[in-house]
Specification:
38% of the residues lie in helices and 22% in strands. The strands form 6 sheets. The protein has a 5-stranded antiparallel β-sheet with strand order 4-3-7-6-5. Strands 9-8-12-11-10 form a 5-stranded antiparallel β-sheet. The chain has a 5-stranded mixed β-sheet with strand order 14-16-17-19-18. It has 4 domains: 7-154, 2-Layer Sandwich (Beta-Lactamase); 179-275, Beta-Lactamase, CATH 3.30.450; 362-522, Heat Shock Protein 90, CATH 3.30.565; 551-670, Rossmann fold (3-Layer(aba) Sandwich), CATH 3.40.50.2300.
Length: 671
């Protein structure tokens, strides 16, 4: 049986032949010529017999050719579009836009792969067939080559709808993933089911499949989410506003976090999964850093005030000791108070080390020599059932740090490792030193490493540290030891020492696998021409006679410290003028201009600070030496003293013997 083409189709074909011939003559008349200008008219056939004739235009008159091609498409009685090889629609008629919408691209997702297969067949001259969804119904589509890289896509069996559907507010249908979602750097999937976590995956892009370690078509979407996280997400889903994400953990790796966005249309869901693991890690690091900084400021402030109290206690003890020498019934009680005060002073030093406000004396140290010399002391600290193993790397660098503080840090780590090993029944503590590149340091836990780094690693064979504890180990007063067996300041002290040395400390542990603490210090690189070191000051012997003469201006806002110190200095022959504030001291200095031999001042005071007092009072003090006393580190205010002369520093807490020695030394040096 032979089917004749519809009359409307034959008329359209005749119209096309006429227009094409007219166009052919017009282009030839313009001087291009059918050969020299490359204008070619191909008639592939008539609709319903062998397909529609298509203009293939090349050469100098491309713009005019494209205009003719668009006019031909507009004349077609069925939906038709001229598409590029990548799916971009370059021209379409009203029927196409009514059936397929106003999208500037061909449908993507599952339909895209079929379209590109049809493009390939049309390019070989075989003609292409596929199916496209128009008005929610799959319809046959015809694909033919129009020009190199250009394809004509038609819906030949299409018939217009009987009546225009009234506009409604119904949710859009989800027919498939578009090209953007299919190639996006975040996960995307199309789900089918009433509950998105119980729905079946019917389409998925490669990113989601890779990120979740699964995500195959036919799989239940909820299986990709960690069970407990899935339950929490289901509970929060009903309370979320449209477009608001819910945070989930992935089943393949519960440590990875992702933001899940869901959009619904009927029983279908579009799910977008954005991996935010890196962002969460940065947020946690920032929160931890801010917390440690806040704790450090609090600890430093408490330590400063406590130092003032300890200074007053120690000075009162000195005064009482002169009246209750050895053999006196009160001597034992006073001695116990002194020992307790010294323990409290050690506790304050640890707090200051954590808050990075401890006085430091940096020097250039050879890392290998430092640890090898310190190894002798470490072996005495470890018990017989704990072995000490050392591994010194090659080409060990120089570092610039405070020797005593660095030894304290290594000692605290070694003692903690010893306790962990003994709790597990014995084993070894290993200390390793090495020189690392920036990449090696980053791989070992120092994310912001720049340049070469010096490594000190202390590891043990203990039971390891639980993950929920690992984030808290550097906080002051946090300890896992029984009550009475630890202050919780060992690792906090290490943290502060390393930070004050411009370094980094990282902990790596897992239950049952021991723990590894790594200290990273910047490598010290000497300048090409090192300045000559200052001449070594001769070590002064401790003065036996602590008495002296001279007028001292003593500035201290803490009454307990100022009153006791002034009284004890007067008892040793000095004339002491007291001032409870910087403003009061400035007035006294002006009234006694040229007659003050030494000024002793606290640094941090209400109102005028110690360095500000010195800058304004220097004109009245002349060349008289100035000694600052403070519970804070000298580095906290040393930049404020730039250009000043005859200035020294004495950290609190101090006793009267130490103060008297320094006073006599400063006065002798100035005379």
């Amino acid at each position: 049986m032979t089917v004749k083409p519809p009359a409307s189709t034959l008329m359209a074909g005749a119209l096309i032949l006429f227009v094409a011939a007219a166009g052919f003559c017009m282009f030839a008349a313009w001087g291009g010529g059918p050969v020299t200008t490359g204008l070619v008219l191909l008639i592939c056939g008539l609709a319903g017999v062998s397909g529609l004739g298509v203009l293939v235009l090349r050469g100098a008159h491309v713009d005019a050719a494209e205009d003719w091609a668009e006019r031909l498409i507009q004349a077609l009685p069925e939906p038709a579009a001229l598409a590029a090889a990548d799916g971009r629609i370059e021209a379409s008629n009203a029927h196409w836009r009514a059936a397929m919408g106003e999208s500037p691209r061909l449908p993507a997702g599952g339909q895209a792969s079929a379209l590109f297969t049809a493009f390939a067949a049309a390019g070989r001259g075989d003609g292409g067939r596929t199916k496209l969804s128009a008005f929610g119904v799959a319809r046959e589509a015809s694909v033919s080559l129009a020009a190199p890289g250009r394809f004509l896509v038609r819906l030949p069996n299409w018939s217009p709808p009987v009546a225009e559907a009234p506009a409604t507010t119904a949710e859009p249908s989800l027919l498939g993933l578009d090209a953007f979602a299919a190639a996006s750097p975040f996960g995307a999937a199309l789900l089918e089911g009433a509950d998105p976590f119980e729905a079946t995956i019917i389409e998925v892009n490669p990113t989601l499949a890779h990120a979740t370690g699964g995500g195959q078509v036919g799989q239940v979407f909820g299986e990709l989410i960690e069970p407990r996280s899935r339950l929490e997400a289901q509970g929060r889903l009903a309370r979320l506003a449209p477009g608001q994400p819910v945070e989930v953990r992935l089943a393949a790796d519960a440590t990875r976090a992702a933001h899940l966005y869901l959009a619904r249309a009927g029983d279908r869901w579009a799910a977008y999964l954005v991996d935010v693991s890196g962002q969460k890690q940065i947020e946690l690091q920032l929160a931890q850093s801010q917390k440690m900084q806040a704790i450090g400021q609090l600890a430093g402030g408490v330590a400063h005030d406590f130092n003032n109290l300890l200074t007053a206690i120690l000075m009162q003890l000195d005064a009482l000791s002169t009246r209750h020498p050895v053999g006196d019934p009160s001597y034992e009680g006073l001695n116990e108070i002194r020992q307790t005060s010294l323990r409290a002073a050690d506790l304050v030093r640890k707090l200051l080390a954590f808050s990075r406000k401890q006085t430091v004396q940096r020097e250039i140290l050879d890392l290998g020599e430092l640890i090898s010399e310190f190894e002798v002391l470490l072996r005495r600290v470890l018990y017989e059932d704990v072995r000490l193993e050392t591994d010194y790397g090659r080409n060990l660098p120089l570092v610039r740090a405070d020797r005593g503080q660095l030894e304290t840090a290594v000692m605290n780590l070694a003692v903690n490792a010893r306790d962990a090993v003994r709790a597990g029944g014995g084993g070894a503590v290993r200390i390793r030193t090495a020189r690392l590149t920036a990449a090696e340091a980053q791989a070992l836990g120092y994310p912001d490493a720049e340049g070469d780094q010096a490594l000190i690693e202390v590891a043990d064979d203990g039971q390891g540290i639980a993950a929920e504890v690992l984030d808290k180990i550097f906080e002051p007063f946090f300890t896992t030891k029984p009550v009475g067996e630890g202050t919780g300041l060992g690792l906090a002290t290490v943290y502060g020492i390393v930070k004050q040395a411009d370094g980094w400390i990282a902990a790596d542990s897992a239950p049952g696998e021991g723990a590894r603490f790594r200290i990273f210090l910047p490598v010290y690189i000497p300048a090409m021409i090192e300045p000559a070191p200052p001449p070594a000051m001769p070590r002064r012997s401790q003065a036996r006679d602590l008495s002296g003469a001279g007028r001292i201006l003593f500035v201290e806002d803490e009454d307990a410290v100022r009153i006791v110190a002034a009284r004890l200095l007067r008892a040793r022959g000095y004339e002491v003028i007291e001032a409870a504030s910087g403003e009061e001291a400035l007035g006294i200095a002006e009234a006694n201009a040229g007659r003050i031999d030494l000024m002793i001042s606290d640094v941090v005071m209400p109102g005028m600070q110690g360095p500000d007092l010195l800058k304004q009072a220097r004109v009245h003090l002349g060349e008289a030496p100035v000694m600052f006393i403070s519970g804070y580190a000298e580095a906290e205010f040393s930049n404020l003293l730039e250009g000043e002369r005859n200035v020294s520093f004495l950290p609190k807490p101090i006793d009267i013997k130490t103060l008297a020695e320094r006073v006599k030394h400063e006065l002798q040096k100035a005379s």
